[in-house]
Amino acid sequence: MSLPIADEPRTAVEWVQMDDTAIAAVRFEHATQATLIEAFDGGFGALGAAAAAGAVQPAGPAVAVYHGDPMGEFDVEVAFPVLEPLAAEAEFAGRVIRPSTIEGARCAVATHIGGYDGLGAAWGSVVAAVTADGADIPGRWIEVYVTQPGPDVDPATMRTELIAPVES
Fold this sequence. Notes:
This protein is 18% helix and 38% strand. It has helices spanning 36-52, 119-132; strands at residues 14-18, 21-31, 62-68, 74-81, 90-92, 95-102, 105-113, 140-145, 159-165. The longest helix has 17 residues, at 36-52. The protein has one domain: Regulatory factor, effector binding domain (Multidrug-efflux Transporter 1 Regulator Bmrr, Chain A). It has 168 residues and is α+β, with helices and mostly antiparallel strands.
């Protein structure tokens, strides 16, 4: 897997070169913040069913790839990285799982520890670092959910890696 996930949480925004990463993804078009829970539940439910059936072999934690303005209307891929690209599309739990790729790029990367309600502020620090560097974020935002949420997980301990591919 080529996603830049550090062994320990980052304490500041870091610059890394990310390689191409194959993913198995369920894509939702014209999503909004209000529809994300439905997209995540449906997408990860389908991916879980595909993994249970042996059709998808996750090679790392869950990922969301946002295409467009995450504060407006955007497309989102709910996914897992895989060691080998899927050979073809497959349908599980009423959703189509497609082979896709997170293209490699120079990235600003940060770690957010805490509930998902703090992601906006964490992304703000990434955007500030990118702006200070004189770079631009071309509309692709990646979240890696290192800690899987669940009823027994304290939201204050959840870890999410924020990856912003940039253009100089």
